[in-house]
């Protein structure tokens, strides 16, 4: 990796198109070095505000269901809605144009402006106009375009692409804006505060508002029944764009059309709260243009009659609509919740985790849908942590979209004998043997782990050798800076089998009986944790039996090897079905596997089998203990007494991203506290390890940068009250905390078991 | 709950939410004299006041205010861009968000509520609805929200694009709301 360009010298435009892998890696280096602190501060503020604002909506979940339904029906009926909308716009006295492609839309808008002899156009924020590169087309025709949203203004001055769907310049700190403006403008103003910068830009733009011949806006939603638009903003520039000039052109994708203006009632509650986290932004305009009020004549001029054009663009959306996977992306209302709730996005922003226009978790589908598949390469940065799924106001399964993009990108790889032989040996499904070696390695890690565990002392010695790590780095891209956790000498299954029979199999007929699922991560990675979980359950009065250890498909799914994941899921389902049919509760220690059973399997199993999974109870061990204790009136603090723990009573607990998405984390905190532990919790969305992600050489720095937020929270907690025992629920979180803090990390079950005699 | 009580709790909720959104709120008993005094107090020593006459509230309510020599109901473009305050009615307001709904389809309302640094909005207490979604119901305020061109205005214009949060961008820097009991 010699001859590296200084990351500060890389410009965002150079790395906007990421169809080349090098652009993605350069973009990560550039953003981590130049933009990360501003992106973190701004996205994390949005993120906190959104949690607070949505918590105040008593019917948040019902609103999301309704929004989802409206969008599903709107996309299904799209052709009919477009016909209705066209009639409504014309009846209002406006013009309607449906553009097939980006150039078609550019040409239409340019021609309208030329017909009006427009010299100066003011633009409100429109990401869609970035998609069709409208400014270039207009400037080429001699029309001056003034971006009036302050973020778009900054980007226009800097010649950069947006880094965020609703705050396109959120990667700029105040200091960097000052430096940019001083470089680009001659002014006596100091420009050293947010106020001064705002005053400077406002004065400049106000002249342009007054002089403008035309205004171009986007639209957040469009109602087919009345031709009404909904536009959400805070600065007032969109209102000016639509109110002052006589000619108004609104530009939007065809997916923005909903059946009726009454539907706005659902989205107005969700969109601002999900975006900036405000109950409403300063201005939400509801208009069915052309406005009846006269336009504004600049001093000395006479007012012209108003004219309105609604330009809708297809540009790949009809193809997305026919796509069994990508059609879900059309439900997106562009609120940015999936960006702000994403730990990787918070660290790098949309100049790395994004393409030429669209960014974040949903961005890959949009870049692929409106451009070409390889433009979606940045969607590799989606780790499938699922935090965005719980935050999306239209419940889009964003990780599933990204796993499919990954599968499609895998399929574009050249075939090779090595890959296909490796795949055959390790168990990749035939159609996945085209995937890169690295992906097949991580997808089938359990096969390697099984062998490594059989000869653990040899494996540990060998994988400790620098030249072996070098080989692993070169062949499968496993970063040599990552310490590998040692392979145990016995698996969970073996330890369980080796126990005295009365302990392993003793059951008390009066007690509830559960099946503990022996996930491969615990089985081959930390069997003693699995044993502790079973001991905890027995101590809490639950009979527990251990399943055979089988791969669940999580690792394969995360590599976009969906056929392999499906093969593993279906194999596992055969083993679990008899239990599910009896109504046995299944206890799952590893949260990423719990999430598979609870939701991802919907995509991997046939409908009848999924039905049975959907009806079954899959519980995190502490969630199970808490519900049993509540049902039976057991006082857990009499069983697990914090004072008896050799680890002390002060703990720092980091719950797993997917555990939180499964609503299975608060139970751990409640139990630990009720048993007398003093618990400080993390508030990060994800630790940054995310299974294999943090092991990959390409993403090691990003993974550690994300982890740094978590490590900083540990340090802050310990600065106040001394060292705390580190506790985490996920295998990956353990590895990340271990790497970052350099000390032992326990699972909550180990903490509880440590209090027993 | 009595309708009157329900209305007074909506006024309270509205006031708290509007203040949260950095607007100022004044609740007055409705009379031409009270309204005139409240508006003139809000605009302070502004040398000129833009004014869009009401379409919903009785014009007589504004008569005393409109008689003030500084008030311009027919400002020239030069005056529009150089005036410190703009006064309009709001046909509705939203309790949960502290928003006022300004109809922008009438003559100058859109411009008067947008161009001046201080925006003053006058709303009748009985037109406060609980939530934004209520403006999209046929059975609320006679379905006016479904027919009109209007803007939910929540606090003054603002941006976080220049780093810290700045209030007062392209739109008004301050929003003062007068609620008529």
Could you explain how this protein is built, in words?
The complex is a heterodimer of chains A (757) and B (181). With 757 residues, chain A is of the alpha/beta class. In chain A, the strands form 4 sheets. Chain A has a 6-stranded parallel sheet with strand order 1-10-7-4-2-3, sandwiched between helices. In chain A, helix 2 crosses helix 11 (264-275), helix 23 (492-498) packs across helix 26 and helix 29 (591-604) packs antiparallel against helix 30. The longest helix of chain A is centred in the N-terminal third of the chain and has 35 residues, at 21-55. Chain B has 181 residues and is an alpha/beta fold. Chain B has one domain (3-180): 3-Layer(aba) Sandwich (Rossmann fold). Chain B has 6 helices and 12 strands. In chain B, strands 1-12-7-4-2-3 form a 6-stranded parallel sheet, with helices on both faces. In chain B, strands 8-5-6-9 form a 4-stranded mixed sheet. A two-stranded antiparallel ribbon of chain B has the order 10-11. Chain B is globular, with a radius of gyration of 16 Å. The two termini of chain B are 18 Å apart. The relative contact order of chain B is 0.22. Strand 9 of chain A pairs antiparallel with strand 9 of chain B, so a sheet runs across the interface.
């Amino acid at each position: 990796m010699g001859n590296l360009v200084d990351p500060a010298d890389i410009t965002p435009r150079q790395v906007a198109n990421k169809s080349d892998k090098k652009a993605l890696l350069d973009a990560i280096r550039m953003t981590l070095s130049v933009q990360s602190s501003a992106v973190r501060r701004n996205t994390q503020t949005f993120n906190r505000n959104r949690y607070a604002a949505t918590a105040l909506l008593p019917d948040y979940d019902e609103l999301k269901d309704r929004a989802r339904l409206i969008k599903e029906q709107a996309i299904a009926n799209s052709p009919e809605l477009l016909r209705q909308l066209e009639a409504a716009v014309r009846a209002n006295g406006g013009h309607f144009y449906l553009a097939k492609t980006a150039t078609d839309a550019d040409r239409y808008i340019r021609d309208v402006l030329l017909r009006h002899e427009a010299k100066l156009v003011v633009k409100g924020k429109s990401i869609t106009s970035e998609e069709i590169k409208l400014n270039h087309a207009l400037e080429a025709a001699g029309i001056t375009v003034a971006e009036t949203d302050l973020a778009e203004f900054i980007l226009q001055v800097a010649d950069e692409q947006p880094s965020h769907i609703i705050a396109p310049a959120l990667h700029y700190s105040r200091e960097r804006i000052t430096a940019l403006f001083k470089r680009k403008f001659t002014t006596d103003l100091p420009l050293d505060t947010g106020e001064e910068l705002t005053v400077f830009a406002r004065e400049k733009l106000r002249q342009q508002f007054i002089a403008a011949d035309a205004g171009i806006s986007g639209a957040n939603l469009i109602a087919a029944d009345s031709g009404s638009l909904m536009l959400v903003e805070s600065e007032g520039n969109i209102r000016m764009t639509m109110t002052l000039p006589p000619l108004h052109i609104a530009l939007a994708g065809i997916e923005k059309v909903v059946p009726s203006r009454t539907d706005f009632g659902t989205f107005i509650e969700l969109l601002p709260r999900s975006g900036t986290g405000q109950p409403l932004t300063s201005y939400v305009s509801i208009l069915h243009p052309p406005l009846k009020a006269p336009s504004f004549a600049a001093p000395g001029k006479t007012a012209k009659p108003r004219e309105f054009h609604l330009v809708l663009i297809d540009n790949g959306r009809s193809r997305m609509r026919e796509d069994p996977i990508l059609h879900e992306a059309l439900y997106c209302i562009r609120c940015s919740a999936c960006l702000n709730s994403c730990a990787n996005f918070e660290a790098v922003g949309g100049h790395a985790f994004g393409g030429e226009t669209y960014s974040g978790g949903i961005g890959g589908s949009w870049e692929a849908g409106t451009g070409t598949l390889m433009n979606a390469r940045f969607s590799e940065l989606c780790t499938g942590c699922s935090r965005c799924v719980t935050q999306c106001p239209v419940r889009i399964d964003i990780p599933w979209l990204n796993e499919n993009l990954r599968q499609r990108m895998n399929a574009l790889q050249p075939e090779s004998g090595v890959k296909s032989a490796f795949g055959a040996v390790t168990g990749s499904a035939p159609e996945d043997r085209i995937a890169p070696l690295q992906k097949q390695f991580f997808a089938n890690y359990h096969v390697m782990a099984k062998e490594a565990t059989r000869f653990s002392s040899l494996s540990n010695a060998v994988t400790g050798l620098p030249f072996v790590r070098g080989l692993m780095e070169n062949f499968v891209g496993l970063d040599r800076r990552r310490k590998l956790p040692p392979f145990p000498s016995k698996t969970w299954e073996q330890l369980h089998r080796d126990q005295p029979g009365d302990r392993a199999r003793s059951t008390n007929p009066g007690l509830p009986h559960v099946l503990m699922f022996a996930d491969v991560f615990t089985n081959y990675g930390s069997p003693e944790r699995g044993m502790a979980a079973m001991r905890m359950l027995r101590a809490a009065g639950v009979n527990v039996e251990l399943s055979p250890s089988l791969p669940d498909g999580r690792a394969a799914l995360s590599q976009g090897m969906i056929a392999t994941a499906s093969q593993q899921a279906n194999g596992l389902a055969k083993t679990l079905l008899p239990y599910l049919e009896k109504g046995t509760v299944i206890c799952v220690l590893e949260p990423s596997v719990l999430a598979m059973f609870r939701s991802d399997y919907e995509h991997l199993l046939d409908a009848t089998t999924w039905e049975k999974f959907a009806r079954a109870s899959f519980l995190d061990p502490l969630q199970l203990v808490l519900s049993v204790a509540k049902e039976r009136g057991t006082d857990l603090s009499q069983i697990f007494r914090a004072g008896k723990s050799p680890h002390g009573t002060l703990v720092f607990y980091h719950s797993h991203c997917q555990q939180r998405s499964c609503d299975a984390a608060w139970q751990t905190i409640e139990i630990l506290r009720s048993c007398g532990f003093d618990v400080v919790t993390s508030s990060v969305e994800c630790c940054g390890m995310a299974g294999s992600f943090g092991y990959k050489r390409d993403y090691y720095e990003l993974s550690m940068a994300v982890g740094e937020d978590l490590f900083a929270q540990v340090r802050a907690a310990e600065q106040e009250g001394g060292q705390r025992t580190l506790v985490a629920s996920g295998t990956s979180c353990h590895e990340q905390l271990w790497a970052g803090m350099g000390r032992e990390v326990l699972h909550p079950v180990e903490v509880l078991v440590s209090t027993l005699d | 709950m009595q309708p009157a009580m329900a209305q007074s709790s909506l006024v309270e909720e509205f006031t708290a939410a509007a203040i949260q959104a950095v607007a100022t709120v004044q609740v007055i008993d409705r009379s031409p004299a009270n309204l005139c005094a409240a508006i003139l107090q809000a605009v302070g020593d502004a040398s000129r006041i833009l004014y869009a006459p009401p379409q919903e509230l009785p014009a007589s309510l504004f008569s005393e205010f409109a008689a003030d020599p500084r008030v311009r109901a027919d400002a020239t473009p030069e005056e529009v861009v150089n005036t410190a305050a703009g006064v309009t009615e709001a046909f509705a307001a939203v309790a949960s968000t502290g928003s006022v709904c300004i109809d922008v389809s009438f003559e100058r309302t859109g411009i008067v509520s947008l161009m001046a640094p201080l925006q003053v909005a006058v709303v009748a207490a009985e037109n406060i609805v609980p939530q934004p979604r209520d403006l999209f119901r046929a059975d609320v305020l006679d379905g006016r929200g479904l027919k009109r061109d209007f803007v939910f205005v929540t606090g003054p214009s603002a941006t976080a694009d220049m780093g810290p949060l700045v209030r007062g961008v392209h739109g008004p820097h301050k929003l003062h709301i007068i609620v008529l009991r």
